[in-house]
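Ticket #390: bound-state structure for magnesium ion.
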Amino acid sequence: MKTLAELGDLGGKRVLVRVDFNVPLEHGAVADDTRIRAALPTIERLRDGGARIVLVSHLGRPKNREPELSMRPVADRMAELLGTEVKLAPAVVGEDVRAATDELERGEVLVLENVRYEPGETKNDPDLARALAQLADVYVNDAFGTAHRAHASTEGVAHLVPEHAAGLLLEREVAGLTGVLDDPARPLVAVLGGAKVSDKIDVINRFAQLADTILIGGAMCFPFLAARGHTVGASKCAADDIELAAQTLASAEQVRARLELPRDLIVAERLADDAKAQPIDGVDVPEGMIGLDIGPATARAFGEAIRAAGTVFWNGPMGAFERAPFAAGTRAVAEAVAAAPGTTVAGGGDTIAALRRFGLADKVTHLSTGGGAALELIEGKKLPGVEALA
Ligand code: ADP
Ligand code: MG
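RESOLUTION: The complex was predicted; output attached.
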């Protein structure tokens, strides 16, 4: 993968940057600008180099060029953050857009309209890719979160522009995540939780081969516990997931990792803010009760494994942490990850939300915002948007 640093002098060149500006909107304005801020390092670097910058992103899922999904509020926010004018193109591609890119001065920024206004985007349509390529001398992809999709703006266009490279954000994501997979400091401990085994089974099975220890918490532990013959009461536990968990447990002899399940739990009659959280010894959930968090003995054991790790990968909360009675297990794991001396990598929308809630998001070595793309990379899949930057 070629990096920004490996590109030569960009002075005066038109650089098309695929960014992730898929931000939440409220009343026609940007409600959370985290993703726009995340793109600033690459954009600032290109401006410093005298490039003429063309930004392209998708926003929501437009069906029919809905004006509510225009990039206008994003361009406005970008202008505020950069402290300079940011232009908005009248469309994604076409003669007028091309003229707008030709008029750009060094260091100026133009935002293209929502790339999904073009139906060819998600089909990786060669005509759209060509039209995008005509807007650029250099292509930079900084949208790691969509790198697992072969779309015209993430894949097709990369092959049609003379020079291409990864942006700083994408480079950091790939380096942070592949660092877990390729020759990590050992022991490598994977902490996996969250809602469903079926969402994460490929991640579990990959770490079964790569990691030294897998710690399983969250609702995900119940199919494993059920497969081992424990009662799960009214806990989240789909029949299909028990089957998947049983297969993983059956192959335990042939894999590297030791799989550690909870040894105690927090249960309740219902999932509510004012529910009474009851600790139970052992992991047999009584009938009618719901397992909603790992217990304190499990949290201690998981914390010790995390502290002793050379590398930690964490995805998935340990319980229904959004509600205070069931947050302790996730908080304990978050604190252990934050304090761990080894390299720590955490990702997943709810995992990041948990780290933020506990004020620990800046205490991990690499916080991946890559979502599905990050999990696919961990699973060992090739990401088309990354491969195209080879
Ligand atoms: P991420 O977004 O970090 O990948 P997931 O989406 O897989 O994580 O799972 C997060 C969700 O799982 C949270 O909303 C959390 O409330 C829920 N969850 C975790 N443990 C339990 C449990 N024991 N019972 C019900 N929900 C749970
Ligand atoms: Mg989630």
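RESOLUTION NOTES: The first strand starts at residue 14 and ends at 18.
TICKET STATUS: resolved
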